[in-house]
Model the fold of this input.
Amino acid sequence: MTDCVADKLAIYDLVFKYCRAVDRRDFASLAKLYHADSIDDHGGMFKGSGKDYVAWLPTVLVGMKVTSHAVSNHLVSVEGDKAEGEVYCTAYHLTADNTEIIIGGRYLDKYIKEDGVWYFKHRKIVMDWNQIKASDCDMDSPVVAGTDVGCAFDQDPSSAFFDFLKTS
Done:
């Protein structure tokens, strides 16, 4: 495998780890994804260092029953130990008051590789569309009865299920 292909795969993995860490509320793992002098720009919600973003995020997610980030169309360009990427994302949020916030947009990313590990150097969100409405999500429906429900990392069904796909 060429270095460029290996670098792109590592960057894709970085983005997937971000989604999982946010959705599972695994803030220890999330913190490891940002470079020490990184920037995260979530528009009017937050703009600051990656470290401050990770500290701020739990204060927002406490008001969410569910989040689910799905990424696609990931275009990456690598130049040595630096890279840039545009990642399409659909982010679903179910608030404590049963409002659904669905945002379709993109992450504009700058990555840096240090000691063989890729990190977010600068992450900026761009919203292309959104849908905000009362939810008709019914976790108690007989159709889904007995199905495990996702939750914070240490209580999530994946925590007990996986033997070596662990984070934190």
